[in-house]
Amino acid sequence: MSTSNSGSNSWVTNSGANSRGPQCLCGVTTYLKTSYTEHNFGRRFYSCSKYKIKRECGFFAWFDPPMCEHGKRVLKHMRDRQECLNVDQKNVEILKEDMESLKEEIGSLKKEKQSLKEENKNLKKEIENYGTVVIKYKLAMFVLCIMLIVMGLC
Question: Where's the GRF-type domain (predicted)?
Answer without folding.
Answer: 24-66
